[in-house]
Amino acid sequence: MRRVVITGQGTVNPLGHSVSETFAAFQNGVCAIGELEFRDVERLGIRIGGQVKGFRAEDCFDRQKISLYDRFTQFALVAAQEAIDQSGLEFNDSLTDRAGVALGTAGGGLNTWDDSYREVYQEQKSRVHPFVVPRLMNNAAASHVSMQHNLRGPGYSVSTACSSSNHAIGMAFQMIRTGLADVMLTGGSESMLCFGGIKAWEGLRVMSQDCCRPFSADRNGMVQGEGAAIFVLEEYEFARKRGAAIIAEIAGFAMTSDAADIVMPSVSGAARAIGGALADSGLSAGDIGYINAHGTGTAANDRTECAAVRQVFGQDAERLLLSSTKSMHGHLIGGTGAVELLACTMALNESVVPPTINYRKPDPECDLDVVPNEARRVRIDAALSNAFAFGGLNAVLAIRKL
Amino acid sequence: MNDAIASKVLRIVAEQAGVETAAVNSSTSLEELGIDSLGIVESIFCIEEEFNIQLPFNANDPNSTELDFSTLGTIIGAVEGLVKQQNSKS
What we know:
heterodimer; A: alpha/beta; Peroxisomal Thiolase, Chain A, domain 1; ten-stranded mixed beta sheet; 35% helix; B: mainly alpha; Non-ribosomal Peptide Synthetase Peptidyl Carrier Protein, Chain A; 3 helices; 53% helix; globular
């Protein structure tokens, strides 16, 4: 089978508007969660989140383009440009038909839905902007990335709630592996920090009103975030021949379904995905130095995830580092796996593992080394990134140094 | 106990559990009715809508709240208190 490597990465997320800003924040344990700022926020019970601050669409796109781009598309386009610039690829001649895009998102253009519903229901307007549909559709980001960069091979979007990005990256990996494409732009993007987006989540009563504290005994729920991360994946020989700098190899991927409950996670579903990714990669549990946890900060996820890791790793769980960067950037839902894969590429390339911040009190049901509060300098040769979605759909990626 | 409030709460919970209202009373627990965490969240939502009150409840840690959700009787008591507060405000 063909091997697949990462040769470019880009991001816009609450911690930074580039990969280097994000890495600096990961290493310094920066918390980007704060007071939400948007219309009608005072009518919400939940008023904190990981919002992308200081992002000005007008600095990135011309006016006509902005009227076509929902915020989730804007994040994806900026992140894709950074990733492509780093890869050094130019999509022309025969490559353009062998290059594609697969992006994850859960809400798509949710801000566009929210604004337009407000206009017609609350403000009683009789018409909406003509681009409402092309702005809100879940594949808008993937389509605009393909149009912007002339990617004429496979293109699609994946929507599996909190696993969307990992599923998209996993599928892009499989497509290159099996010969459907030579280069794929992949990752995910999300922007649902608006009145309707948060109001819907409030209803489930799993959101924290003050802080995201994954694995800490006093955790009280998840906090939402927004943003995107995009990677350039290439077939290994293709990358090697053109002398590309290789960030990491995508070594393995597995996806499983709990087939059990629409919101409660299951140990066995998560464990089968973690074990499956290891088996697919040919790595053993002892090779993995770091896991970027799904680590949402809910009672149910964190307990279940730790039990699943213990089940797969056995004795090797004792020396494993596992952290949740959601403590810093919040839960980016359909974009979260992509931003969290950056934590893994940082661990491989810079030998620094990002911490789980806001950690106060050990929970006997989460008794792994969760890298509390301070980044750890340690050599990491291989890492996993977990994503476990509502609906019981699990996706785990394995990457290694090359 | 306020009969009007009690009968409304019993009806909401019975409906959630898929049983006749006659089959539940103030000593019944949500657990014995087989109401899971999602069912609890939905019951609380229905009660809040019915009485226009806000019940403090975090699904992460159902026992963390000052309210006692152990039986329908304790839930009814909590609702009565909140309805009284609501009335004195308005």
